[in-house]
Amino acid sequence: MLSQEQKKQLWDFARENSQSHLYFIGHESHVAWESRRMAPKLDADPDICEISGVLHDLGYSVDPKHHIRESQGLATTALKEAEVDPSTTYRIVHSIATHDAILDPFRVPMENVVMNEVDAGCFFRHYMGLARWMYNDLLNKVEQPERLPKVKTSLLEHAIETETYIRLPLIRREYEEDIEKHKERIQRMTDSNLSSY
Ligand SMILES: [Fe+2]
Ligand SMILES: [Fe+2]
After folding, report:
1. Domains in the chain, please, with CATH?
2. What pTM was computed for the model?
3. Residue 55 scores a pLDDT above 90
4. Ligand lying closest to the C-alpha of residue 27
5. Residue 130: band (very low, low, confident or very high) from pLDDT cuts 50, 70, 90
């Protein structure tokens, strides 16, 4: 399937092509490691989960509006350079193609479901590393006096949507505490701690 050398090459490619070092460390690496760790518990292939995880968001560096399509393209290039066989390439690129959606484990491979749900879970667990940019963007867009309620509502809506992706009970249990902490953090926001959130 994948040799250690191929995996190293793919990780190097991801590190070099990520939209930022912070995003690579704070999100893509975690999705890769945590997907790999969850894989055996759900009968999924650890290598497919790990490598689709590390490559899944690279497209943000090319076109944030169509990051999934661009990630598929970059992953295809990386897998070709690493001389990965066609069937493994297909499974990895297919898993990237289905991320950011609610998936039915009876219709897509378990590797896709694991990576997709862990991706959502990592948003909650590693929030500070991942979503600073999203939050700062929001702060800059919204003016006082409605800033606080608007920021809170927008963050909560995003949290609730992201949470709906996590459906497998095993993955749900894994991230339950992080989801609750994240929501509490939003509720605790006040005007005075808004900019240090
Ligand atoms: Fe994504
Ligand atoms: Fe992601």
Report:
1. 4-196 (1.10.3210)
2. 0.91
3. yes
4. 2
5. low
What pLDDT band is residue 188 in, cutting at 50, 70 and 90?
A: confident
CB-based contact 84:101 (threshold 8 Å): no
Q: Which ligand is nearest to the CA of 60?
A: 1
pLDDT band at 132 (very low <50, low <70, confident <90, very high): low
As a dihedral over the C-alpha atoms of residue 82, residue 76, residue 168, residue 163, rounded to 10 degrees, the angle is: 120
Distance between Cα 4 and ligand 2 center (Å): 24
**H-type alpha helices, the chain:** 4-17, 21-23, 29-38, 46-55, 67-81, 86-97, 110-125, 127-130, 132-141, 147-164, 169-187
Distance 144 CA to ligand 2 centre (A): 31
Cα(24) to ligand 1 centroid in Å equals 12
